[in-house]
Amino acid sequence: MKIPFAKPLITEKERFFISKVIKSPILTHGENLSNFENDFRKKFNFKYAHGVSSCTAALHLSFMAINLKKGDEVIVPNQTHVSTVHTFQILGAKPVFIDSNNSDGNIDTNKIEKKITRKTKAIVAVHYLGKPADIIKIKNICNKKKLYLIEDCALSIGAKVNNKYVGGFGHFGCFSFYPAKHITTADGGMLVCQNKKLYEKIKLLKGFGVNKNFNERKIPGEYDVKLLGLNYRLDEIRSRLGITQLKKLDNFISLRKKNYLFLKNSLKEMKQFKFLNLESENNIKSSYFCASIILSNKLKKNRYKIIKNLKDIGIGTSIHYPKIVSDYTYYKNKYKISTKNFPNAAILSYRSINLPVGPHLTRKDLLYIISKIREIFKKFT
Length: 381
Fold this sequence. Notes:
single chain; alpha/beta; Aspartate Aminotransferase, domain 2; Aspartate Aminotransferase, domain 1; 2 domains; 7-stranded mixed β-sheet; 3-stranded antiparallel β-sheet
């Protein structure tokens, strides 16, 4: 049996739609991108949306749009994908890392304000593994201190706080459609914002700074370059796939929740690990990216052996993420920050194993995962 951690669910109907785009003369700057952006904006009640080439591109464009520069500081959780930090580090800004809380792995909001200085320009709220961060408190801090708020929603599309979708609280919300995510466009992303001026600026930034795209030119080849921009556009092929994938998102999340709860309830007697709290509660709706188990301190040295045992019998797993950002060689050499300053984030990086809960799983798959986890963990106790 082979059970991947994630598997894109693309139907023959979707392949047919994609083939129609490939046969058409318009592969960029077409109606599929516009339709995908409009569908995305309307579904989540966002004011503006730009389809872009990746979530990394969305993050980079966000920081470019707020004129982030050398000497500026950005508050960011140390437990995140390295791209979250790369995208402002490359502009010369300095990361100010914050530890995670020990409940759901999101940024510890109690530690944010004391890290704010006159150089602080923005806070990044990463919604970890589908469970929203305390975005209301973070937004209040940003309003109080007059800071920009960027939401990294790479793993949390469809999650809500107070019945409002994540991505709509900050100045920008950044989404990923990488194959392992809730929905996919093969690769790609979406950048949403609530401010028309910022939306118009992003339009320039994502297309070389050119003031007229292909369809807007009265004279072919005639345009001006208003500012320094890059090529972060999303093409027609991926946009068409995104349109159909978006329609299936609610069902996908419902299946993820069902699979997550089945795994967690079936393994609740296990003493060798505990589940990170990624489920919905009170006014918070999770999008259930995965099920994350945190190994006991006694078993942490055996983590990779356990992962290999699972892999050898066909069960795919993942780690989010293998190191806290400040422990990666580049950042360790540059900033020389001690791991001891981030005890909760370190536990997530060095003691967690993430299990699949995606809609590709059958009940048979789940029962197999449960039985094999019980079996394997007996070897290490």
